[in-house]
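## Example record

The block below lists the input lines for one assembly entry, exactly as stored, with component labels intact.
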Amino acid sequence: MRLEMRQVPLAEGLLALPAARAQDKSSGDHTAVSGPHSFQIVSFKWEHVQEPYIIALWILVASLAKIVFHLSHKVTHVVPESALLIVLGLFLGGIVWAADHIASFTLTPNVFFFYLLPPIVLDAGYFMPNKLFFGNLGTILLYAVIGTVWNAATTGMSLYGVYLSGIMGQLDIGLLDFLLFGSLIAAVDPVAVLAVFEEVHVNEVLFIIVFGESLLNDAVTVVLYNVFDSFVAMGADNVTGVDCVKGIVSFFVVSLGGTFVGIVFAFLLSLVTRFTKHVRIIEPGFVFVISYLSYLTAEMLSLSAILAITFCGVCCQKYVKANICDQSSTTVRYTMKMLASGSETIIFMFLGISAVNPDIWTWNTAFILLTLVFISVYRVIGVVLQTWVLNHYRVVQLEIIDQVVMSYGGLRGAVAFALVALLDEKKVKEKNLFVSTTIIVVFFTVIFQGLTIKPLVQWLKVKRSEHREPKLNEKLHGRAFDHILSAVEDISGQIGHNYLRDKWSNFDRKILSRVMMRRSAQKSRDQILNIFHELNLKDAISYVAEGERRGSLAFIRSSSTDNMVNVDFSTPRPSTVEASVSGLLREKASSVCLDMQALEQRRKSIRDTEDTVTHHTLQQYLYKPRQEHIHLYSRHEIIQNEDEKQDKEIFHRTMRKRLESFKSTKLGINQPKKLNKSHKRDRGQKRVRGINAIPNGKIPSENPVQGFTLKEKGIDNPAFSADDDQSIYVKFPPWLSNEDSVVPSQRARVQLPYSPNNFRRLTPFRLSNKSVDSFLLADGPEERPRAFLPETTHM
Amino acid sequence: MGSITLEQIEHLHRRFKQISGDQPTIRKESFDRIPDLEFNPLRSKIVRAFFDKRNLRQAPDGLADEINFEDFLTIMSYFRPIEMNMDEEQLDHFRKEKLKFLFHMYDSDNDGKITLQEYRKVVEELLSRNPHLEKESARSIADGAMMEAASICVGQMEPDQVYEGITFEDFLKVWQGIDIDTKMHVRFLNMEPIAHCH
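Predicted structure tokens for the full assembly:
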């Protein structure tokens, strides 16, 4: 079943004029009639570039539209983008039609299924929250399978019943046609759900159920559609019981087969990425190509392609994310999002354009109206019934409010439209009616339901997604929890959820990860560690941000190498963070881009020297900006960042020096209190009083300390207090004194900042690898100084 | 306490006899009979929790040598799922009970607060299954988590203040946002009678 791509008169119309002019000029260009009269310096070769040009133009138009929409924040707050795009499509289609009376570009099923849909589904699968997904898998499957079958059957049969009653007038339809129509209109559409729900922010359980349902019902849709399509082709009389049974069997084959294909390709992909260490540049390519192949393979075997690519993404994400380097990971993320977002935009726009096609419009009030009514009503009934059954088995109950959102959020979208466009007119006589109805249904759900779902959610006070920062404690306790629960399950002799999960993670750790993950990744791949990394990074960023807010990073400006930093966190000023480094760095949910080039662009608020200082601070302290490529032009290699190993060293070493403040009082900290008092400056000011790390005994002699006191607000660096303090330092080279004179970290004395979310974990900055924090003591003598760290002497 | 159904009790009793080897009481060694428990990093702490007198509500301190079936049930009851017909107060009490159980697990020396050392031990044990994670990293993580807890619980600290440890109230605060009621439970084989909606 193919619909031919029709020419785009818009482009032709636009270019007809200049083309004509060009024709006049290049009078000799008619190759058919006579040879060229003279040499053509420039010729107009429209046909040569026509196809790619048009495609690119449409993509451009769609993207420009997106920009225009987002200019008005008020509008986008209320109206979902998808609705706006559809309207735009209608508008554009109207223009074209008015200009030429020819129907323009339609959304052809091939283009849709091969190019536009896979990126969206892949994006969904790759970023699927696995724990949540598999935790609710039973629920999702129930809705996807039983729910869709229910919707299809009831809608089809009710329409048939109404038809029999004659309200619809004379139509050339049989029961099978109705069932076919029912099956394609019944499925909840992942594209539409994503588009609408991502602006609504319901709580994650609710979202995953609706969204998971929209993904997994593809198998059902495919089977039902194919079954009824072939039944219609065979003719109603020839359908036997065997065929019905075959239909049911095919459901299992299609769904499980699709899943299996996806898993196989996920395995392949993970395995491949294990070995891509030396071809980092093309790492992202593998992800896309192999996933796409899984889609096409399933399609080729007439299995469920959406399931294949979904499970490919779902299964590979863990290993791929562990294996590929950070830059590739970022690339993959952004490319996927871009493709998915672009596809979505194009889909909705073309849905609008395709509607402006008078050839297909057949209006049958009763049919259309009743379809709308039936799908809504039966969806509600289906959801309610299934939820009632499910609540007996679920711990987290699904309440009425959830059910309302689920029913209301069952949007139909482009998949239904593509399926209906695929119908064969010769077999399904009333195809146009179906197409028109589908268009109206899709428009209704996307526009009307999309518009109203947000206020509905707010009015019903649906539990919203809590956007919380990852907390280390949560992760730790969560992990402990899991272990406790599985232990209790073991003890009480159950095979429970936790037991299964435990078994799986054992299996994964012993076998799967060994095979599919790089050795280096296996070591560092621990969720808790990751959160820890992230949090440290955030701290560093906050530190820089704080510096920006003050307008200067003067408080770390110093040419001395044993500078200890005192930061006053107590009065955060309103920040103008937008055009700042930290704004750039604060990219959500992504590996932070400490791109020096990007940093350089935002220098407006930071003076040059301070910028360098920041850079060096960060470089020394936590993470080296990984994007510091050595500027050799090479398309095939990224020069390996030798600093990676150093990163790890820094990380470990720094973390070791954390907060001794929590050493209990049993470890005497009496002595430091005296030291502390001698450094207190202004009691009036709420400031940090800190003891600076007793520096390396060598340093005072090597680098004469400058009496450096900033008179700015609250910045006081006791490190540069009077000389007599230095002498105290000299007396206690840290590694020689005993435990009792452990100086609690500076941080211990810090007034923890205003909001508990900031600066939780900052450790004292050391701007030199030579200075040794005294509280290293308790852990034992410090190892040899790191020779390979860059000296900060050039600050 | 709340109720466990008769069927559940029967099932647990059977299990108890299995573990104890048909003896009336269990000792710590009896838990060695459970093979799957071996791989659990928190094994020792959990087994200990069964004998912890605080959990058994016998004394504020100390460990029992052996427990009988009633004690076994007492511990198991901490993991009951919430029942539909509980009111606010019951729910709150329920939640506190569960959190107390957790707290006792962390606070091994029974002094009412979780000190840095204890916390470190827990984290080390927790991460012990990962052979590639060094002890120092585990330690730093524990420190970081402690600091986080401190910032949640105490907010601004005076310069001379030293954060001694997480008390139970602080512990509650840390867990405030998390739905422990729904997570901390074990589904017993036999389902509870279907709750009525009215």
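Chain A has a mean pLDDT of 69. Residues 219 and 252 of chain A are 9 Å apart (CA to CA).
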